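Retry 2 of 3 after timeout on previous attempt. Resubmitting structure tokens to design endpoint.
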């Protein structure tokens, strides 16, 4: 077997947890790296092939259109939902809270639908259900019927865009670069850079981002584009794949009135272009409300109104005696009407009675008018049982293409992060100056032995903590971006992790080198050039291992705050067993594995071997430490080599990277499945496909009837309004000056 520093390779890889465990870990790490960094990536089949198999699922909508190019016309998609019920169980109190209660509605292409209601009414929950983005939980129960173009829902049957409340981007990229990278990763069918640039320019013009195209996106540390421009950039990134349906979760959150109206005007224009646009919004201003074509009103998870927007809701509620005064924002009137007033016990009783009566009134109306089309069960056929053509397949050339694109993006993000890099550089130099001043020009006396050990220990701790805190402070936010892009099929996890690792090597190595260049001569450590090079090399490898550990912590916890709590706590354990405070020979048996897994211990051991080997100290007594080898023996480091410590740190680094990969795969977003309901209320699993019992032409004619009927005055209902609402007094909102 090949020698490795005086030992065989098998002996060298067994440094963690004994021979058997060490070999097993090394083999697993090597296998994982081969799988991650050499396997082919994933990609979707071209859209023109996938759409052939889904022409039936989309009800024949858009026949003859070719989706192979992003410039093609948007495929129209109509979404209908019926009896959507979502409940959340509480094991401690053994109670069930209903987030949605038998909600019914419809969204059509070319129309802008707004989901409105007070806080806690279920707006975001309904939007997530329709978009298939409701986070999975064993405590959730989701049931109902969801149709796409008259057929049972299949998110793979149409393209959708989901714009979240948080606008997450790589802060150091410009607006144009952000869209260009998104286009390169998603539009693989466009190979020409000129065509891709033209497509990006069209998006910039369409979304009103031309003026800020070359501006940095920015974040809390770097000033960039405005909040409204970030929201429109989110829309632009989602529009790259030409989605049929656009979902926007409260797109006006955090924006001023002007920016909010600009964003909503952009959504309205997208609806006019043929997209089906659905957004949730709390309480829009009057000019924003006028942009809506349809509106869904929710209160406490129940449906109060679903139909055309404008004056139709005011007419509908006016028939029950609830009149909107002149010069009052209709959205404010509707929000006050369907909200519960908790200011006093009397107001709670009267407002709840009013709201419940409105819910009951619309539920009776919607059952007879809004969805009169009967639904039946479709028998599964060979076509429905065969595998879908747009399933994920291997792409031989996609892995390396993704890697080089992500490497370019990661390098631009890392190299342009001036504020962070300046702070890290200043802290490295400042720490080196402080430590160098404390341990100024150490001699070779007996007391200098302890000083040298203390200096090497704090140097190892400082380097590891600096790399760890930087990573755990950034990676959780970046993980949210990666999860979003991976959910679109833009790239696989392997190219991303490898590109991030390589791109950060030059930047990550600079700070340990700066630290060592200042500290080494000030403390007068072993004054040879080769020893200085080994000192910097050990510190650099330790920095990379700490960064890899930070990636694992960031992949393990849900947010930055939790990562900042877990990371340093875990590092503290490794510091205690770092070789200086507790001797390895005195470590309890149940904790013997911790020093072997501690990157602090291996860095400290390597630094000590590099410093004390061949060093002679002044001595007066026979029991004094005369050579550096005797000092190493007291630390239980005798007989070790620097290359062994470097190899151990590399094994730890690979272990953390492999663990990060597994955690990112395991913790990728999972969404709640919808249990389909039949007419009799029984639930079916998601494998059953439903379709209208009528022919498609009859179904289209019948689905057009509700819109016309909703616009008709409700004379018959107005006659019974007094009976339904009992003693509830008419709700009149006093007009206030604006």
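Retry 2 succeeded. Sequence:
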């Amino acid at each position: 077997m090949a020698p490795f520093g005086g030992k065989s390779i098998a002996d060298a890889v067994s440094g963690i947890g004994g021979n058997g465990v060490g070999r097993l870990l090394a083999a697993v790490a090597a296998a994982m790296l081969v799988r991650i960094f050499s396997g082919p990536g994933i990609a979707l089949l071209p859209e023109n092939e996938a759409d052939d198999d889904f022409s039936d699922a989309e009800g024949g909508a858009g026949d003859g259109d070719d989706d192979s190019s992003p410039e093609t016309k948007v495929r129209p998609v109509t979404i209908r939902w019926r009896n959507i019920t979502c409940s959340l169980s509480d094991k401690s109190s053994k109670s069930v809270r209903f987030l949605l209660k038998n909600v019914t509605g419809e969204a059509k292409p070319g129309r802008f639908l707004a989901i409105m209601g007070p806080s806690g009414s279920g707006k975001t929950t309904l939007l997530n259900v329709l978009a298939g983005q409701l986070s999975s939980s064993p405590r959730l129960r989701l049931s109902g019927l969801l149709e796409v173009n008259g057929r049972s829902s299949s998110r793979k049957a149409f393209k959708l865009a989901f714009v979240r409340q948080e606008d997450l981007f790589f802060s150091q990229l410009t607006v144009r670069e952000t869209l260009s990278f998104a286009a390169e990763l998603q539009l693989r069918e466009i190979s020409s850079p000129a065509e891709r640039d033209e497509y990006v320019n069209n998006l910039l013009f369409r979304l009103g981002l031309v003026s800020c195209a070359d501006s940095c996106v920015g974040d809390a540390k770097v000033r960039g584009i405005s909040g409204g421009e970030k929201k429109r950039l989110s829309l632009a990134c989602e529009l790259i794949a030409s989605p049929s349906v656009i979902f926007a979760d409260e797109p006006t959150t955090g924006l001023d009135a002007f920016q909010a109206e600009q964003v909503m005007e952009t959504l309205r224009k997208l609806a006019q272009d043929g997209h089906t646009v659905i957004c949730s919004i709390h309480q829009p201003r009057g000019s924003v409300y006028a942009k809506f074509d349809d509106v869904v009103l929710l209160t406490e998870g129940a449906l109060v109104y679903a139909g055309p927007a404008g004056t139709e809701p005011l007419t509908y509620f006016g028939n029950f005696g609830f009149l909107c005064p002149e010069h009052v924002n209709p959205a404010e009137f509707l929000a006050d009407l369907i909200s519960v007033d908790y200011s006093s016990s009397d107001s709670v009783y009267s407002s709840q009675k009013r709201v419940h009566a409105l819910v009951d009134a619309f539920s009776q109306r919607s059952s007879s008018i809004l969805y009169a089309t009967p639904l039946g069960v479709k028998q599964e056929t060979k076509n429905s049982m065969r595998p879908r053509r747009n399933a994920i397949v291997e792409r031989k050339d996609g892995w390396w293409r993704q890697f080089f694109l992500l490497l370019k993006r990661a390098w631009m993000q890392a190299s342009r992060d001036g504020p962070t890099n300046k702070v890290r550089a200043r802290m490295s130099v400042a720490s080196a100056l402080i430590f160098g001043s404390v341990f100024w020009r150490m001699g070779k006396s007996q007391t200098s032995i302890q000083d040298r050990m203390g200096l090497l220990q704090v140097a190892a701790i400082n380097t590891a903590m600096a790399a760890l805190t930087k990573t755990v402070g950034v990676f959780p936010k970046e993980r949210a971006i990666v999860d979003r892009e991976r959910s679109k099929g833009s790239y696989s996890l392997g190219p991303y992790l490898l590109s991030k690792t390589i791109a950060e090597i030059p930047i990550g190595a600079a700070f340990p080198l700066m630290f060592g260049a200042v500290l080494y001569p000030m403390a007068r450590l072993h004054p040879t050039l080769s020893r200085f090079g080994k000192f910097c090399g050990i510190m650099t490898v330790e920095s990379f291992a700490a960064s890899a550990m930070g990636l694992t912590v960031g992949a393990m916890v849900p947010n930055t705050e939790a990562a900042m709590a877990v990371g340093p706590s875990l590092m503290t354990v490794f510091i205690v067993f770092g070789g200086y405070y507790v001797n390895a020979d005195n470590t309890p048996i149940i904790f013997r594995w911790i020093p072997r897994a501690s990157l602090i211990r291996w860095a400290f051991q390597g630094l000590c071997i590099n410093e004390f080997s061949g060093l002679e100290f002044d001595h007066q007594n026979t029991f004094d430490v005369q050579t550096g080898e005797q000092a190493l023996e007291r630390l239980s480091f005798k007989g070790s080599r620097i290359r062994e410590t470097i190899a151990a740190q590399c094994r730890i680094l690979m272990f953390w990277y492999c663990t990060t990969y597994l955690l990112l795969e395991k913790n990728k977003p999972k969404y709640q499945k919808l249990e389909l309901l039949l007419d009799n209320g029984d639930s079916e699993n998601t494998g059953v496909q439903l379709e209208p019992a009528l022919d498609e032409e009859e179904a289209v004619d019948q689905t057009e009837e509700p819109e016309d009927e909703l616009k008709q005055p409700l004379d018959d209902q107005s006659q019974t309004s007094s009976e339904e609402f009992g003693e509830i007094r008419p709700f009149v909102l006093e007009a206030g000056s604006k």
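Attempt log closed. The chain has 27 helices and 18 strands.
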